[in-house]
Write a structure and sequence with these properties.
Blueprint lengths: L3 E4 L8 H6 L1 H11 L4 E4 L4 E6 L3 H11 L9 E3 L2 H7 L4 H10 L4 E6 L14 E6 L3 H10 L3 E5 L11 H7 L9 E4 L10 E5 L5 E5 L6
Parallel strand pairs: 1-8, 2-8, 4-6, 5-9
Antiparallel strand pairs: 2-3, 3-7, 4-7, 5-6, 9-10
Helix pairs in contact: 2-6
Length: about 210
C-alpha cells in the first residue's frame, strides 16, 4: 500500500454523504476495504482504524500499537442501526445510548454471531460506540461495517492530537499505518466513558471519561 498523508478540512460540512464522497475519504475507505490501517481524527483524539471484520487488518493494529494480545480493541459504528446488527443492547444500556449517542460513550455489549473478527471479542462481548465526529462516522458508513478505533499511539504512550504527534510515535517502526487523514490539531479531550453491565444487570462504569455518568 502507498503511504499517504491527506489533509481534511476540519470545518468541512458534517454531512456524512458529502464527507465520504471527498476524494481523501474515498481513498481512506478503499484502504480499509483492502485490509489497511488508517489514522483518522475522532471527537477525543487521533485513532487507528481498520475493518473490524478483517482478522488480518485487526492483527496489524495490534502490531502497530504493540498491544498485548490479551487486550481487545474498541469499535466505532456509523449509527445505532449498525451497532444493532453486530450486538445486542440491553434495556438499561439502551437508555444511555439514547442519551449519549452519537458521542464519546463506549458500551460493552454482547456480540451477535460472527460479524466481527475474534480478536475484538472478549467473553462474548465487544466495546463499541457511535462517534459524533463526522469523519469517524463517514469511514464506518463508507465501509458499511464497524471500524476498529483505538488511540493512535504506542501502547502506554500518550494520546495524539495531531498527525505530527502520531507520526512521531510510530517513527522507528517497521509496520506503519497505511494512510493518514489529517483533520488538523484537535483540542485535547478525555477518552470515551466505558460502561458495561454488572452481574446484577446494573450499569457499571469501567472508565469515567468525556461523558460523566
Amino acid at each position: 500500500m502507498v503511504f499517504k498523508a491527506i489533509k481534511v478540512d476540519p470545518g468541512f460540512p458534517p454531512t456524512p454523504m458529502r464527507l465520504w464522497r471527498a476524494s481523501s475519504l474515498g481513498e481512506a475507505i478503499t484502504v480499509l476495504k483492502r485490509g489497511g490501517v488508517v489514522v483518522f481524527p475522532t471527537e477525543t483524539a487521533y485513532g487507528l482504524a481498520a475493518d473490524a471484520r478483517n482478522a488480518e487488518a485487526v492483527e496489524r493494529v495490534f502490531q502497530i500499537k504493540g498491544r498485548a494480545d490479551d487486550k481487545t480493541l474498541p469499535l466505532i459504528a456509523a449509527d445505532r442501526a449498525m451497532v444493532e446488527r453486530v450486538a445486542g443492547i440491553p434495556g438499561t444500556l439502551a437508555d444511555l445510548a439514547d442519551r449519549h449517542w452519537p458521542g464519546p460513550l463506549t458500551l460493552i455489549l454482547p456480540v451477535i454471531g460472527d460479524a466481527v473478527a475474534p480478536a475484538v471479542i472478549r467473553n462474548g462481548e465487544i466495546a463499541i460506540r457511535v462517534s459524533s465526529h463526522p469523519i469517524a462516522a463517514a469511514l464506518s458508513r463508507g465501509l458499511g461495517a464497524p471500524i476498529v478505533s483505538t488511540s493512535a499511539n504506542r501502547s502506554g504512550g500518550s494520546s495524539c492530537y495531531s498527525v505530527k504527534d502520531v507520526k512521531a510515535q510510530f517513527l522507528d517502526q517497521e509496520i506503519q499505518p497505511d494512510y493518514y487523514l489529517d483533520g488538523g490539531v484537535l483540542d485535547p479531550a478525555l477518552p470515551s466513558t466505558i460502561v458495561s453491565l454488572d452481574d446484577y444487570g446494573y450499569p457499571e462504569i469501567l472508565r469515567q471519561g468525556a461523558i460523566e455518568i
